[in-house]
Amino acid sequence: MLNSMHESPAAKRARTLFDLVSIGLVVVGLTIIHYTNYHYNVDYHILLQFAYYLPVIYAAMRFGPAGGILSSFVITLLFIPLMTHFQETLTPAAKYTQWVEVGLINVIGWLTGFLTEEERKAKRKYQLALTVQKELVEKLKREGRERERLEGEIRQTERVTALGHMSAGLAHEIRNPLGIMKVSIQMLRQEKCDDEVVSEYCRVLLEECERLNRLVNEFLSFARPKELVRQRITLGKLVDEGVRLIQPALRQNHIELEQARCHVDLQEVEVDSDQMKQVILNILLNAIDAQGQGGVIYLEGVQRDGFLGFAVSDQGPGILSEAMPYIYDPFFTTKENGTGLGLSVVHRILDQHGGKITIGNRIEGGVCVEILLPYPRGDKGIVNRSPVPH
């Protein structure tokens, strides 16, 4: 195809005008040569007559059947007077030859335009088929990625279920002797209250018992999730209640929490408030641990694809690429004193709510965690996302 499909409208108009002017100038030039050199012999004019094929063929290829037919018709009108002038000097064979040439110019104009149009139609069909093929390939890729994601979630659920049963058994086995140890230490502390060394040892032992007891409670919470008690609450109020719990840790680490308020905060979600507060607490504690001392943690509302929620971004070192596939696995942790249950519990709670969590490293450093919840039944939201402050 001669014309480019990627030209702008102005460029196409300019190119069309240039082609029309060029075709017109060639036709006019050939006609002027014919009429200003009529004193030459007939063979000279017959030879020049063949030159008319060039503008006719180009017009047909450029503008299709209309261009070929119109240009050949105009040439016929221009050439007939001169051809009539030579009729008396021509033999019958030469007369017929000239009329055949005129007919051929018109036939070639129409035929070239018709074939050009058919070629263009075939090319458009090919391009349409190619576009459809590309769309199908992209759709298959998206479905493949979605299938891999679902398979990963199924594997994650299976691991969580198996480890949950194991954790429940271990927690019960540990809890009974732990309780006995705690009571025994308390009694020993009361009996030896005058002995400062024994009292100090008892204090350390009780603190460790409390730490073990909290760990056991985490295992039980992970192994035996509570039944959801759903209630409607605005997302902003839910987040604010979770943020209040984290204020002491923020002050202790000299970290500023910057919140981007938007219309998402005014929309309602149907959730178990206590469990969602645990989600907010876990995510913000992880951000504080990653942040260290000082800096800013960003908290914003988000909306996307029928979900709404919030995103937490820190300025920490980020997550290693080799650790990323295992961050939701129970007992997997990169922290020195971590249990590896925080994100597993968050994943399970969101799964119960029909929500989802996405975690990724930010280009400018740190990690961005998105917590997304479905709209309450019957509600529809505007798919939008507020900008992340930097």
Structure description:
It is a single chain. This protein is α+β, with helices and mostly antiparallel strands. The protein folds into 3 domains: 9-138, no CATH class; 150-223; 231-374, 2-Layer Sandwich (Heat Shock Protein 90), CATH 3.30.565.10. Helix content is 63%, strand content 11%. It has 8 helices and 7 strands, in the order H-H-H-H-H-E-H-E-E-H-E-E-H-E-E. It has helices at 9-36, 42-50, 53-85, 92-191, 196-223, 235-252, 273-291, 342-353, and strands at residues 231-234, 256-260, 268-271, 296-304, 307-313, 356-361, 367-374. The strands form 2 sheets. A 5-stranded mixed sheet has the order 2-4-5-7-6. Strand 6 (356-361) and strand 7 form a beta hairpin. Helix 1 packs parallel to helix 3 (53-85) and helix 6 (235-252) packs parallel to helix 7. The radius of gyration is 41 Å and the shape is rod-shaped. The relative contact order is 0.07. Mean pLDDT is 79; it is low at 381-390.
